[in-house]
Design brief:
homodimer; alpha+beta; L-amino peptidase D-ALA esterase/amidase; Ubiquitin-like (UB roll); 2 domains; nine-stranded mixed beta sheet; seven-stranded mixed beta sheet; 32% helix; 28% strand
C-alpha cells in the first residue's frame, strides 16, 4: 500500500471535482461537487441520531439502489430539522445536479453540514451547482475538500494505491469534522472514492466494518450529529476483476486500503477538533472482548475532565481510571496500569490501580508534545482497541458559544 | 413544610458539627465532623462507578448495620485508587473518630472528596479529628458545610421542618459538588440529618427513590465520580411515633421533606458547577414513560454544545433537538416543540421539529438571565421529568486544566 503525494478524492481514475463559494458561508468555499465518469457502486453509513437531517434520510433511501455517480456537498447549512421542505430541498439539489451534469437525478447523493434549523437557500445552491459543474476537473479534489469544511482549520484528504492482481487500484477520500463529533455510525461527513471494481454489497460490508474501527472511535465533544454520513463510491475503472465476494482475490487489499484511508481521515478529524491543541490516542488492551476495549477507550476519550487535564498538561491519571470505571464495562480496578506517552517518552503513572510515584517533571515533558498516547492495560483478557480525541481548551468554548453569530 | 432561616445539617435535634483546617488543602477548612447525641438509623446511596473510592467501599459495607452516629468528611483528597492502604486508612479514620468521641468505630461513616490517587496523610487527619471533636457544637453546621467544599464557590445547606402527628420534625442537609458531577446514584457528597423517628429500611426506600429524581438528575460535566455518596441519618429525637412502613402516618411527610431538601441541594450543585454562569433546568414533557423523559432531559443537560450555547446566550435550539435525538429514546422529531424561558419571558423557538422564526432579540433577552428553563415537549405521551445543569464556560476549562497544581 502506498500513500500518494498530494492525493485527494479525485486521485482514483475517472473522478473529477470542484469546490466553489455560493454564499452559504460568508467568504469561504461552501459547495463541492464530486463526479465519476461512469456510474459507481455505492455504500454508506449514517448517523444513528433519530433526529437525522434531510440529506441523511434522502441518502439512506438512495443507496438502496446501490449505484451513484455524483456527490454534492454544501457547508454552512445542515438542512436538519427542516421538515418536508428540507427533504424536498435535498431532492431538488440532486435534481439540479442531475440536470446540469445530464445524468439521472437518482445517481446524485446530496450531503449537508452546518447550522441546524434553517432551510437551504435554493437559489444560491443552484448558482453554486452550475458554477461547480463548469469547474469540474481531475485536479479539483483539494477544492472540494476545502468546500466541505465548517470550523475545520485544515482540509482532510488523502489517497492510497494498492495492487490487486496486475492492476493498481487507487482509493481517495476527504472528510470534515471539528464539532458535534461523536459519531455513531460515521463521522459528520466522509467521502471515499476508488476505481476498484467491486460490488456495492462487498463495499457495504467493508464500510460498515471499517467505520466501527475508525470514524466511530473518535470523539470531539460527545455530541452525535444529525448529519453524520460516510459514502464510498467505486467506479471500477482500475480494470481489476470485479470483487463480488469476501473470498475473491483483492478483497483483503481493498479492505486494508479503505481501512487505512478511513483511519487517517478519522484521526485528522480528532486532531482538528474544535479548539484542539493536542491529538490524544487512547489505547486499551487486556480487555475481555473487543467491544469492552472499544467502550472503555471511548469513555476515556469522552471525558471532559481527561481532556481538560491533557490541555493543562497534567498527568491526572485518576480521571482516566474514573472514566474507565463509569464506562459500564466490568473490570478489576486493581488490575489496571496506565502509561502516558509521546515522542518525548513513556511514563507509567499507575500500576495495579494506584499511582506509581512517577516523576511529575518527566510526565510534563511527555505531555508537552502535540500527540499524546494514553495506554490503559486491563487484566481481563487479550482484546484491545484504540480511540482518538483531542484535548479540551478555552477555544472549544469560544467557538461554540457564538457558533451562529 | 417550612424552610428554616439559617438552617443547616445541625438543625435537627441532637446534632452537633464542626469544620476545621488540618492541612489537606492549602488554607481552607478541609475536615468536617457531624455527630448525633444518640445512634441513628442510616441509609445511603453510592456511585455506580466501578472504580469506587475506599470510603465508598467502606461505607457500603457499614450501612448494612443500619445504625450510625457520626460522619467524618475530608476534602482535598478523595482516597480513591489507593488500594488496600486506602481502605485501611478509611477504617483508621473511623477508629480515630470513635476513640475521640468514645463511641464504637463502627458507628462512624467516613467520606472523602478531592484529588484521586494519593494516600490520606493520616497524621493530619488525626490532628484534624481531635481539633474538630473539641469544637463540636449545635451551631457548627455551616462550618461543616464549608469544610467539605472543593472547587465549590459557596456552601450548600438547608433545613426544613414538617409536622408529623403533634411533633415537629426537622430535616437538615449539606452537599458539595462542582466538578466530576454526573451522579449515578448520588451526588459527589450529600449528607442529610433528621430527628425523625424512622427505621433504616424506610429511610433507605425514601433515599433511593428521591435520589433518582434529584441528585441523579443533575450534571456538570458528564463525569461520574469515584466518590459519590449520599447519607441520611435519623436519630428519632423529634419524638414522633416511629415510622416503620410506607403506610405509617408521617411517611409521606418525611418523604416530601427529604425530597425537597435533596432537590434543593442538587440544584445548588448544578448552579455552582465549575465555571458556571447560569443554572439551566431542562423540563421534558410528553414522553412515553418517566424513564424516557429522564433520559432525554439528562441527554440535553449532558450536551457540551447545548451548554456552550447557553453560555453564549445563543438560542441554538437545533443542538437541543440533536441531543434529544441521540439520547437513545425513540420519538417523532416532528412532534417536538421547544421553548426557552427565564424570568424575562418565554420564547417558543421550535414547533413540530422546525424553527418558529422567533425573534432573536427576544430570545437573547430571555437568555441573558441567570436561570434558564429549556422546555422540550414531545408528542409521545404524558410523562415528564426535569434535569438540571449549568452552562459551560471558559472557566470550566481553566479550573480543570490545572486542578492538581
Amino acid at each position: 500500500m502506498n500513500i500518494m503525494e498530494g492525493g485527494s478524492i479525485t486521485s482514483p481514475k475517472g473522478f473529477r471535482a470542484a469546490g466553489v463559494h455560493c454564499g452559504l458561508k460568508k467568504q469561504k468555499k461552501d459547495l463541492a461537487l464530486v463526479v465519476s465518469e461512469v456510474p459507481c457502486a455505492i455504500a454508506g453509513v449514517f448517523t444513528k441520531n433519530i433526529v437525522a437531517a434531510a440529506p441523511v434520510l434522502y441518502g439512506r433511501a438512495l443507496i438502496k439502489r446501490k449505484v451513484a455517480q455524483a456527490l454534492v456537498i454544501n457547508a454552512g447549512n445542515a438542512n436538519a430539522c427542516t421538515g418536508e421542505q428540507g427533504y424536498s430541498n435535498a431532492q431538488k439539489t440532486a435534481e439540479l445536479v442531475g440536470k446540469v451534469l445530464q445524468i439521472d437525478a437518482q445517481l446524485v447523493v446530496p450531503s449537508s453540514t452546518g447550522v441546524i434549523g434553517y432551510q437551504l437557500p435554493m437559489d444560491k445552491m443552484e448558482q453554486g451547482i452550475v458554477q461547480a459543474a463548469s469547474l469540474l476537473q481531475h485536479e479539483g479534489g483539494s477544492d472540494a475538500a476545502d468546500a466541505i469544511m465548517t470550523t475545520d482549520t485544515f482540509r482532510k484528504q488523502r489517497a492510497l494505491t494498492v495492487e490487486i492482481g496486475d492492476k493498481t487500484v487507487t482509493v481517495g477520500g476527504m472528510s470534515k469534522g471539528s464539532g458535534m463529533i461523536h459519531p455513531n455510525m460515521a463521522t459528520m461527513l466522509g467521502f471515499v472514492t476508488t476505481d476498484c471494481a467491486i460490488t456495492s454489497d462487498c463495499l457495504q460490508l467493508i464500510v460498515s466494518d471499517v467505520t466501527q474501527k475508525t470514524f466511530n472511535m473518535i470523539t470531539v465533544d460527545g455530541d452525535t450529529s444529525t448529519n453524520d454520513s460516510l459514502y464510498v463510491l467505486a467506479n471500477g475503472l482500475a480494470g481489476n476483476r470485479e470483487i463480488k465476494d469476501v473470498a475473491d482475490p483483492g478483497f483483503g487489499e481493498i479492505y486494508d486500503a479503505i481501512y487505512a484511508l478511513c483511519k487517517y481521515l478519522a484521526i485528522e478529524i480528532a486532531r482538528d477538533g474544535e479548539g484542539a491543541t493536542k491529538l490524544v490516542s487512547v489505547h486499551v488492551s487486556g480487555a475481555k472482548t473487543p467491544e469492552d476495549a472499544r467502550v472503555v477507550a471511548k469513555s476515556i476519550c469522552g471525558s471532559n475532565l481527561v481532556k481538560t487535564a491533557v490541555f493543562g498538561e497534567d498527568a491526572n491519571w485518576g480521571r482516566i481510571l474514573a472514566a474507565a470505571g463509569y464506562s459500564g464495562v466490568l473490570f478489576d480496578p486493581y488490575g489496571v496500569s496506565i502509561s502516558i506517552g509521546s515522542s518525548a517518552g513513556l511514563v507509567k503513572v499507575a500500576e495495579q490501580g494506584t499511582g506509581t510515584g512517577f516523576s511529575e517533571e518527566e510526565a510534563l515533558k511527555v505531555l508537552q508534545e502535540d500527540e499524546i498516547v494514553l495506554e490503559v492495560k486491563l487484566a481481563e483478557g487479550d482484546a484491545e482497541a484504540t480511540a482518538w480525541c483531542c484535548d479540551f481548551s478555552y477555544d472549544y468554548v469560544r467557538i461554540n458559544a457564538d457558533y451562529r453569530s
